[in-house]
Specification:
Layout (H helix, E strand, L loop, with lengths): L2 E5 L6 E5 L4 H11 L3 H15 L5 E5 L3 E6 L2 E6 L22 E5 H17 L2
Antiparallel strand pairs: 1-2, 3-4, 4-5, 5-6
Length: about 120
Amino acid sequence: MEYEFRRNSLTGTYLASFSMDHEVLGQWFSEELGPELAKIQQVLDIIKEIQAGKRDSWRLIGGDLTLDLDEEQARIYANALGFEQEYELEESMSLYDAESEAYCGLEDLEEALLSWYEFVQKGR
């Protein structure tokens, strides 16, 4: 999983971009976490608790995206994916949701969060 962090020097906004199949992680980092060090630290602390066996799983529901953590992986997905479709699609049709959902290993997420934390801290 590759990623890149940028900061707009004019607006002060932070932007995370992740590799294909993990694009939604960039949106989650940029929009749901943003530069809030306390929120980033909270997720890092929860990951440590899960790794230590003190907790089985955890969920953080954001404005547009939700983070689910368990002992093995992290799942980030658009809140809209949790809703049932009101209509059925034809057999040959399907909804494209690859940019609305991503999975990664818990350690991979932890590494990316630590990098994001450092990046945000240096930008202050």
